[in-house]
Amino acid sequence: xxxxxxxxxxxxxxxxxxxxxxxxxxxxxxxxxxxxxxxxxxxxxxxxxxxxxxxxxxxxxxxxxxxxxxxxxxxxxxxxxxxxxxxxxxxxxxxxxxxxxxxxxxxxxxxxxxxxxxxxxxxxxxxxxxxxxxxxxxxxxxxxxxxxxxxxxxxxxxxxxxxxxxxxxxxxxxxxxxxxxxxxxxxxxxxxxxxxxxxxxxxxxxxxxxxxxxxxxxxxxxxxxxxxxxxxxxxxxxxxxxxxxxxxxxxxxxxxxxxxxxxxxxxxxxxxxxxxxxxxxxx
Length: 283
Ligand code: PAF
What we know:
This protein has 283 residues and is an alpha/beta fold. The protein folds into two domains: 2-175, Rossmann fold (3-Layer(aba) Sandwich); 188-276, Pantoate-beta-alanine ligase, C-terminal domain (Pantoate--beta-alanine Ligase, Chain: A,domain 2, 2-Layer Sandwich), CATH 3.30.1300.10. The chain has ten helices and nine strands. The protein has helices at 7-19, 35-47, 75-85, 95-98, 118-122, 126-141, 153-165, 195-200, 203-216, 221-234; strands at residues 2-4, 24-29, 50-55, 89-91, 145-149, 171-175, 238-246, 259-268, 271-280. The strands form two sheets. A six-stranded parallel β-sheet has the order 1-4-3-2-5-6, sandwiched between helices. Strands 7-8-9 form a three-stranded antiparallel β-sheet. The chain is globular, with a radius of gyration of 19 Å. The termini are far apart. Pantoate is lined by residues 28-30, 58, 61, 130, 133-134, 152, 155. Pantoate (PAF) is lined by residues 28-30, 58, 61, 130, 133-134, 152, 155.
């Protein structure tokens, strides 16, 4: 697997692949890769002739006081993992390469509506940072297909709208969340947990499962959510949000909603964990 850091080299390599008629798959990441990321590579591998991964800890999507500086940077391990999962090319640019005039002077992309609330409510500007860097990566790589994890459910919805609104010729594939045996969704931020917190962490997914079961049995939505928030607190979490939305557009549920998605973010020690679970609301 080749690793490139410069835009010109990336464009030259991809132009050659495109001339050969190769279909290009893209997996954007921030590195510190785990089995969930490697599933994205495998999904891209299944749909493309040339798989490009990117590693870039994007400063624009971190707010003040967030974990930009402490976010783990593990390039050699990531290169080994990507290579074993079948990635052909890694693009790992510097901040100066993607933002040569600094963040403040950089054009930003705002995806209205879907970016508001949930993680967008707790992390103002986060999805502007995500949409901006993803649009740049789409422009640099010009992939036929790009793979993103369903764990970041709102992010996936933001990216789908970005692609639709800007008429970008890329197919977006959402890849199911990979979980540890105890149910915890794999995340680079799980590494912030100490042993005791790691043992508590599956309580988030367990709570989502209990909420889904309650909703599918016909429990009242506000009461079931309130009970689940309390359960999260009992399980040692400090809930950020716990909401039930329409699965396809993240709008508020209404009497005719059947396909819903339960979304949660909660702090556990130093880590902010997010997760989601589908629920079928009864008629
Ligand atoms: O999900 C992530 O790792 C990041 O938000 C992404 C999509 C790579 C953009 O920086």
